[in-house]
Amino acid sequence: MKKIEAIIKPFKLDEVKDALNVIGVQGMTVTEVKGFGRQKGHVELYRGAEYDISFIPKLKIEIVVSDDMMEKALSTIEMKAKTGKVGDGKIFVYTVENVVRIRTGEKGDAAL
Questions:
Q1: Global pTM value
Q2: Where are the domains of the chain?
Q3: How far apart are alpha carbons 88 and 10 in whole angstroms?
Q4: I need a labelling partner for 44 at 20 to 30 A (CA). Which of 1, 19, 84, 111 fits?
Q5: What CATH number labels 2-111?
């Protein structure tokens, strides 16, 4: 099993979520996060004063999929989250040892 964490622009969430549902991903966790990379932040004007915005608001999507589903989920997220501009985000993939569904006690792929 693989855990996929994707940091994306907030306005891309619905598009990514809907596309993942179509390919069979049944659940995800979404967290509001802030950060910066090559985008570096920007300066905003608010009530006549300039503010340096160092941390850009993003969303972190976390899903766990079976090994055979990983490439499909990865390419779906990449395709749907891409705008072609700096700040589109990153995708990280981790190996997951085990998963347990608390309600039923199912383990491994059956718990997904």
A1: 0.85
A2: 2-111
A3: 10
A4: 84
A5: 3.30.70.120
